[in-house]
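mind reviewing this stuff:

——
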Amino acid sequence: MTIAICPGSFDPPTNGHIDVIRRALAIFDEVVVGVIGNPSKDPLFSAGERVSLLERVFEGVDRMSVESFDGLLVDFARSRNADVIVKGLRGVGDFDSEQQMAQMNHHLSGIETCFVATNPSHGYISSSLVKEVARLGGDTDRLVPVEVQRALDEKVPK
């Protein structure tokens, strides 16, 4: 059985994140979505809220779980007996930073990283841009799942 970790801040979860997680589910036996707590980034949603949002989006989906963690990704991955880390790539800029992280993670733990190219229809979406558009009163309903849009509407009233 191959266990994959899909890590990220997911603040908020976007359609791009959901696509990568679904594709990981199609490849691996089990997927653990690891929500990085990282309060230093001043998140819009708490780690618990982000876990809850992802659980709602994937309600009823077998072979996956959603958990928050702090500290090193490789420590979290080892604690879940993960075989691989799955990361989505939107473009060349993502690859440069993610390759370096993958190499460090492999150095620290021996765990491989699998890169999944983002679906081109989601390639321009980032959590940072979603938050900015929402804060400026723009329409984000095609950028995030409906469960996330409801939460955004509550956090960032228009």
Observations:
- Residues 133 and 140 are 7 Å apart (CA to CA).
- The two ends are 46 Å apart (CA to CA).
- The helical segments are 15-27, 47-57, 73-79, 92-109, 127-135, 146-155.
- The chain has one domain: 3-155.
